[in-house]
Each structure stands twice: as C-alpha cells, then as structure tokens.
Amino acid sequence: MSNHNYPICFRKLGILNILVCLAFYGSNLTSVAAQNTQLIDSLRTQLRYTPKDTLEVILLNDLAWELKVAAPEEALQLLKNAVQRSHQLSYPKGEAQAYNNQGVVEAIRGNFELATEHYQKALILRQQLNDQKGVASLYNNIGNLQESLGNYEEALDNYNQSLRLRESLKDSLRIGRISYNISLLYEAIGNYPNALGFIFKHLEISERLGDKYEIAQAYNQIGNIKFELERWEEALSFYQKALELRKTLDDEYELAFAFNSMGIITDQLGESKFEANKVDTAFSRSQEALAYYSQALAIYRSLDEQESIAAAYNNIGLVHKNRGSYFLSQAQKKKAADSFVEALDYLEKSLKIRESLNDQKGIMEVYNGIGDVKRRQQKTAEALQYCKAYLAIAEKINDQKFIQKAYKDLSRIYAEQQKFKLAYNFRKQYDELRYQRLNEKRIKDNERMEITYSDGKKQQAIERQRQALQLQAIELKQANTLRNSLIGGALALLLLAGLLYNRYRLKNQANIELEQKNRIIDTERKRSDKLLLNILPSQTAEELKKFGKAKAKRYDSVSVLFTDFKAFTKITAQLSPEALVAELDKCFQAFDAITSKWGIEKIKTIGDAYMCAGGLPISNTTHAQDVVQAALEIQQFMHNLKIENTKRGLVAFECRIGIHTGPVVAGIVGSKKFAYDIWGETVNLAARLESAGAVGKVNISPTTYELVKDLYQCTPRGKIAVKNSTAVEMYYVEG
Length: 735
Hints:
- By secondary structure, the protein is α+β, with helices and mostly antiparallel strands.
- It has four domains: 161 residues, Alpha Horseshoe (Serine Threonine Protein Phosphatase 5, Tetratricopeptide repeat), CATH 1.25.40; 79 residues, Alpha Horseshoe (Serine Threonine Protein Phosphatase 5, Tetratricopeptide repeat), CATH 1.25.40; 106 residues, Serine Threonine Protein Phosphatase 5, Tetratricopeptide repeat (Alpha Horseshoe); 184 residues, Nucleotide cyclase, GGDEF domain (Alpha-Beta Plaits, 2-Layer Sandwich), CATH 3.30.70.
- 74% of the residues lie in helices and 9% in strands.
- It is globular, with a radius of gyration of 34 Å.
- The two termini are 26 Å apart.
C-alpha cells in the first residue's frame, strides 16, 4: 500500500478532546485566547473582591480553566491555591474539581503520568462524595491517558468502569461515546471483532438520539476497521456514508478529513485492481482519489492548515506516482513520464511546507516518495541520495518502519546500478530487521491477546457476582414462604415416602440399565465420528451428518503441495514389501505431523505421492507461507532421515516438492467410501511443478512466489516447459 498520510482524528470523551483541538486548530489558538480575554479579565476582577469562601475556590477553578492553554503555568498555580483553600474550608467538591483541572492542564502539556496522578486524587474525592457522573468521567479520562502511554490493559479496565457507571445512570449519550473509545482501543490492539461490536453499539445509540455528528464518526470508525481487515469495498461503503453525513454538518475540517479518507480508500482500490491486471479500473479509481484529495486540499487552504496542506500535497503526489506505473505497464512512456513529473511537483510542494515546519517525520515521508519516483525514472543516483537522506532521518527519530523501507530501497537501487555486493548487504539488513520486527509484532500480538483474555475474565467475574446477588435476593424472598410450606408438607411427604421409595427402587434399576446402554451407544458414536474425521474435514463431516450430503465449494486462492520420491520404482526392487510400507509409513506420518502443525489439509496419498492444500476448508490469508514453511520442514526431515539411513546402511528416500497457488473446487465424491478431494488447473500445475523440481528442493510457481517473496529467499529458475501447458516461471525456495 502507498505511504499515505492520515490526518490524526481521535474523538474521545474527556481530556483528549482538548488535545484534538490543539492538534487541529493550533494556528487559531491566538484568536481563541483573544476572544476569552474579556471573560478572563472579568474573572480576575471577581476573584479580587470575593470573600475567602467556597466561591473563591469556584472562581480559581474557572479562571484556571480559561488559562489552561494560553498560560498553563499560571493555571497550575491557581489550581494549587484552589486545593489549599478547599482544604482550609473542608470543601472536597472544589478540591476534586481542582485536581481534575490540574490533570487537564498536565495532559495538554503532555505530562500524561503526572496528569494521571491528579486524576486519581480527584477520583478518590468524588468516590467519597458519591458523585457517580464525576467518577465516570474520571475513569474515562484516566483510560484516555493510559491508552496514550501504551498501558492498554489499564486503559480498558478504566473504560469498562466508566461504561458500567454510565449504564447504571442510563446516560445514553455518554454510553455511546465511551463505547466509541473502547472501539478505538480494541482497534489499536488488533481485536477487530470487539472493535466492531462496540462501534455498532455507539452507532445504534447515536441513531436513536439522532446525533448526525456521532453517526458520521461511527461510520468512519467502521470504515477504518474494514480498511485494517483489507475489506476495501466495505470500507469504501462506510467512508461514503460518513462523507454524505459530514456534507450536511457545519464542520469544514471534518469534511476535509472525510474527503481525505475517501482519497485513501479509492487509491488503495486502484492499486489492488492494478495488481489484478485490471488497469482501466485502476486508472478510474486513481482519478477518483485525486478528486477527493483536491477537495480536501481546498478546505485545508481555506483554514490555512499548513500541516494538513502538506499531507494533501504528499498524497496527491503518491497517486500521480502510482499512475506513472500504470502507464508504464501499458507501454505509454510519455504519459508515465508526465505523471512522474506531476508527482515530483506535488511532493516538492509538500517538502517545502514540512521543511518550514521542521516536521522531520513529514520530510522523511516526502524523501521516500521522491526517491521512489526518481528510481522509477531510472535516475538511480538521485534516488540513492533521497533514500540515504530519509534513512538518516529514520535512524535519528528511531522509526523502524522507515529504516526497514530504506534498506529495501537501497538494495533495489544498488541492484539496478549492478552493485550487487552492496545490494546484497542492504537486503540482508532488511531481512534481519524485518524478522526482528515480525518477532516484536508476535510479542505484541500475544500481549494483546492477554489483555483481551484478562478483560474477558474480569467481565465473567463481575457477571458471576451480579448473578449471585440476584440469586441471594430471590432466596431471601422465598425463605419465609418455604418455611411455612415445609411444615404443612411434612406430613404429606411422610405418607408418600413409602410409595415413592418403592417407585424409586424400580426406576433406579431401569436408569442403571439405560445408562449402560447409552454409554455403549456414545462410545460407538465417538468411534464412528473419529473415523469420519480421519477421512474428511470437520466442516464437511458435519454437513454430511446433518444433510446426508456435502456441497462442493469453490476457493479463489489455496496453495497445493505435491511430493514424490525419486526413483521409487527402483527402490521397491531393493526392499521387501513389509520394509517398503514401513518406510513409506514413517515418511507420511512425519508429513502428516508437519502439515497438521501448519493447519494444512491432507488431501490424499497416491502410491508414493503425497498431496495437501492450505487455505481450505476454512479460507485464510496465510496459506501460501504456511505451505511453503511445511515444505521446507518436510525436506529437512527427509534430509535428516537420509543421513540416519545411510549411517545404518539402509536405503534412503529423497523427494521433490512442488507448490502452486490458485483457485480450486473442493468436495466429496461417491456415495460409498467417501473421499475429500480438490479439482482444477491449480492441482494439475502443482503436480507439474513437483515433476519439474529437483530432489531436496521446494519448487514454487509465480503466484506462490508473489505471496512469499518477502518472507523467504527464493532463486528464480526462469521459464521451464511443463506437460500440456506453456512454459512456467519457477523458483526454488532456499529458506
């Protein structure tokens, strides 16, 4: 995906709203302060003549609030005075407000940990006052700050406490807003199902209240989540809804933000269509993206938002850069050259503004874009300068993502300059950093799962406590009734006891016999289910048991793997049938263990051939790398087995492996001895790739290569003729 600039747009209930205003309207703070001068002067005058009582505390808080942005140091001193005066007057409400306002000022100054300390003091006081609304607001504010500090578990705990209080107060508006905050947090930690659950709750409340602004915010957040899930068309639909609503609202900056989101998603759709060789559609999408970015740019200019203007210029430049590649693919060199010139013009405009703002991250992003354009223009010397320049900034600000990008770009440029040693060194650094970041991502993913699990456990504990209290109340209510009824029923029970005992004895004997029969039936059912699952995927088996048949299903993308042993016919002549079957069984059991480990479906064995596929019966996006990794582990197992057998003077098997990725149809055939199988040209080509490979090697097709080239070192083999087909590009996976 292109390196687009996303304007920051957090809309959180509480103190971060102030931070948003600072980020969006920083250039207007002077005018805002000027408008408040009259109010500030009035408050100062009142404070000068006010008695030393609770009214003085209120005025100190009000004046500090008005000065929080323009004069934060003075505001803090006023708030300290308010705390001291509240102590003297035994006025906890004023003291709580002063601590709360101190938290606000420190948050504006970026002192999040100190702000949290002040909020905690205010929280204790408001809990003592039983101020439920104030407590709920503080939990929310503390959650905001903990999230900013990266303490996601603490943030989630505070948000949930705020939400429960708002629900007890039946405050629909704030229930919706805190649900929005929780959705943002879940999106940040990658828990997209929960993020969607809470944003739809926010949307439902906003629609019920008729709050168009909040509805638009919800649509935009849903679009963001769909974007992260790479469900581009669904993201587009929700961004469009947000845009249409924002056109009806009097908020120019939010409208510009909506135009920018539409530009990003339409350009992304263009790139995806280009990757699918749908160049005309890609052009159309890029034209739409330019129109949206231009509308956003016009608004930013009217607001004199220099940072956002620079971001818009950068985004427009990236679209023109992509269009240049589209033209190159159509062999329209003149149009491609013009697009690259247009891209440089916008990128340089962005650079000029960002240099004036000393925006190092922005400068780095523009250098990256210009360097990429220069490389596509085949001006590798200039491309190299820009690449080195943005690497220097990335290292200075410790931006690991752009350091990784720079290593990859430097490797590519040096390769084009035929400086292969330098290209190799930077590619090696890229791979090392990439794997390091992948490991860090795995660790963070584990932390995120732990957060979600911990939150779920807490919610379960709270629900158990609530149910226990309800049950206790019911039991207490029923206690008196039960006591009276027991006295009257005791005599009747004595009369019935004899009859019931005899009946119980007969029924108990029947139940014992029935239980024995049920155990036998259950054991046989489990045995038959186990046998069925051994030959069919669980989903297909369930469908077959439920309906008596299973429908065939088409999969647009799966990775099919074939193995075959070298000179198998010759080896069979050297072994007894028993030894041959035992050796095959040893290999295939190992293959089964490896494919199961990577979630790959075994299809069948045909003589000495082994066939499996990734990405079915449940579709996923990692099937190519899963299958390639399994193939490498199979070859490692075969290598180790060969060494072991050779030492013992035994015959050693060697195998070839071929992998191809593409569409297949899967299902079961026949009405007896069911067999799950797959069909299609993808299967045929995977078998051809196995035949065209070499022993000890993993031979993959171009489609598989495109999906794993950033994860594995691959060696191109060129085009190789295969049976019943045109020549096919092939690659060996080296590890």
